[in-house]
Design goal:
two-stranded antiparallel ribbon, 5 strands, 15 helices, three-stranded antiparallel β-sheet, disordered N terminus, mainly alpha, single chain, 2 domains, 7% strand
Length: 338
């Protein structure tokens, strides 16, 4: 059984990723890390400047060095954990790339740690090594014996038309997503200190944080549906996003569906429920615009538990950081009646 699993994973890859594909993935990862870690790092610097002594940190370490170190450490954890558990970072997953060993086996924890530990050195020499080495390996890849490959196109033949999901099934998936994302949003707001008492929203970094939150939520829906065919809620509800002809969804369908979601939320999802209930292919507005729908799946997607765990871990980390740096006090002050 193990041998057959390795064979299937080997056959799912085609060629080595091109420098252009790896660059595109790197740009997406850079934006993702800035959105996730820049503002918490700024908050860490502000907290260190307040004069509070931090454990395991000497007085000779400046607040700016502490913030930079926290950002670098969080970025390293992001790359290592994503490549170890998911085979690729957000950028690689969106570009359909995966990190594997040179013999096309799954990337282990040590390999992911080694290839990313030397990433600062590869910022200069990495692009040249990827462009001119036979295996398109940067220095970290050579030390860790890894390569970045392109995922093979999906060639699953549609034997019969898909069974489109009823609105009740889709509602259950939506509730799971809303609970997960709601907890994340609360933790994010608490950590970044974006709740301001009164009607004024401060400009500058706080406004950037408020803009970053919908970008993260957009990336969740569009990225998950493009990469895995489903959000976490749909995975647990055994649903998947497909084209109306049964073909798998892609980044285009995920983007259009997600852009239409705010309009449907403003209407309380009632028109969406009616559309799913009475249209032929059970499509909400986003599905009609994207030419997609939601079909039933035979089992829970194996990525579902891992993805839910990662979102929960990030939310817990943000909330813990908020408590440590005082961001949670703003929410308590906001909620406390005067």
């Amino acid at each position: 059984m193990r041998q057959s699993n390795e064979t299937r994973s080997t056959q799912s890859f085609t060629a080595l990723a091109t420098p252009r594909e790896r660059f595109a993935a790197q740009v997406i990862d850079a934006v993702t890390c800035c959105l996730l870690f820049c503002y918490p790092a700024i908050r860490t610097e502000q907290f260190a400047k307040s004069g509070v002594s931090l454990p395991f940190v000497g007085s000779q370490v400046s607040p700016r060095m502490l913030a930079a170190g926290a950002f670098v450490l969080a970025t390293l954890v992001y790359f290592v954990v994503m490549e170890w558990l998911g085979g690729g970072t957000v950028g690689k997953l969106l570009c359909r790339l995966r990190v594997v060993s040179v013999d096309r086996k799954r990337c282990g924890f040590v390999s992911a740690l080694v290839r990313n530990f030397v990433r600062p050195v590869d910022l200069l020499a990495g692009p040249l090594l990827v462009a001119f080495s036979p295996q398109r390996q940067r220095l970290g890849d050579r030390i860790a014996d890894t390569v970045v490959v392109r995922l093979a196109p999906r060639e699953e033949a549609v034997v019969q038309p898909p069974e489109f999901a009823a609105w009740e099934q889709r509602a259950r998936a939506t509730i799971v997503d809303f609970v997960l994302l709601g907890i994340f949003a609360i933790a994010y707001i608490a950590d970044t200190g974006s709740l301001y008492v009164g009607s004024r929203l401060a400009a500058g970094p706080a406004a950037v944080v408020w803009l970053a939150l919908p970008v993260l939520l957009f990336a969740y829906y569009a990225g998950m549906e493009a990469t895995f065919g489903a959000t976490i809620g749909k995975m647990f509800a055994r649903l998947r996003v497909v084209h109306v002809d049964g073909g798998p969804g892609d980044f285009t369908t995920g983007t259009i569906r997600t852009l239409a979601r705010p309009l449907e939320m403003l209407a309380g999802y009632l028109p969406s429920i009616l559309l799913v209930r009475f249209t032929r292919n059970r499509q909400r507005l986003g599905d009609i615009l994207a030419g997609s729908s939601v079909a039933t799946a035979s089992k829970v997607h194996p990525v579902g538990p891992w993805a839910a765990g990662i979102v929960a871990a990030i939310s817990i980390g943000l909330m813990a950081h908020a408590v440590a740096t005082g961001g949670a006090r703003q929410i308590m002050a906001f909620l406390t009646p005067r």
